[in-house]
Design a protein that fits this description.
single chain; alpha+beta; Immunoglobulin-like; 7-stranded mixed beta sheet; 3-stranded antiparallel beta sheet; 2 helices; about 10% helix; globular
Length: about 240
């Protein structure tokens, strides 16, 4: 897993947006390559992922993180242990401009090479960043639960997928490959791997997201359901310190 210091150093040279600080990351997909010689134009007929015959490698003229399901990265052979009871997820969301507001989805895919990433771990939520420019802020959900009706045992393999949707609706994909373990066999979650930026110029806020036909009738029930899931995550973080 890349350290925060290294990640900040990369920020000046990349054009993608999300980093999973904890429990890890498939790898550095903060790349945009395969553009025209002017460094900006996209080759005619590009599909977003192209094959460079000369280099015998794939290129991503729009950026790797736009590629479903895991930002153009293959499955990792070095998996991170994550509790069978659920655990922490720490994210740095503001690596490029345009992410003062962004929706986040955290999903689970079961197995070594998951084809299905539609198992929701938490309801969709919106962040409110400190600026519409790039920012070096971090937020942590200290207790992300397993999806409803999903049971796992130590040794089972899975992938956590984090999706950040930009203000214009496009999605950025990042993943971490995990191996489930008993909580006592997982490194302790503390301020070194789970923290919220609190300084005024980097603080991130959160908005609940819900849909209803009637604000008078349905909203209270929906809001109660959302709070029952989201609120314990932040209460747990408060108790952690």
């Amino acid at each position: 897993m890349l350290t925060s210091l290294l990640l900040f150093a990369l920020a000046a040279t990349v054009t993608s947006h999300t980093v999973i600080v904890y429990p890890g990351w498939r790898g550095n997909n903060l790349h945009t390559n395969g553009t025209m010689p002017d460094g900006f134009s996209v080759p005619e007929g590009s599909r977003g992922i192209n094959w460079n015959e000369t280099a015998e490698s794939y290129t991503f003229p729009y950026g790797m993180q736009w590629m479903y399901p895991c930002g153009g990265m293959p499955t990792s052979t070095n998996r991170t242990k994550w509790p069978v009871t659920g655990g922490a997820v720490t994210i740095q969301p503001g690596w490029f401009s345009g992410h003062q507001f962004a929706f986040f989805y955290i999903n689970l895919g079961l197995g070594k090479e998951p084809r299905n990433m539609s198992l929701n771990m938490v309801p969709v939520f919106q962040i409110v960043g400190p600026s519409n420019r790039n920012y070096s802020s971090t937020f942590c959900l200290p207790q992300v639960p397993l999806p409803t009706n999903v049971t796992v045992k130590p040794g089972d393999l899975a992938t956590i997928q984090v999706i950040e949707t930009a203000q214009h609706g496009a999605a950025l994909y990042s993943c971490v490959d995990i191996e489930f373990a008993e909580p006592q066999d997982v490194p302790q979650v503390n301020r070194s791997n789970c923290w919220n930026s609190t300084e005024p110029d980097v603080k991130i806020g959160f908005n609940l997201v819900f849909a209803t036909k009637s604000l008078n009738s349905a909203a209270p029930a929906l809001l109660t359901d959302l709070i029952s899931v989201i609120l314990p995550l932040f209460v747990a973080l408060a108790l952690l310190w």
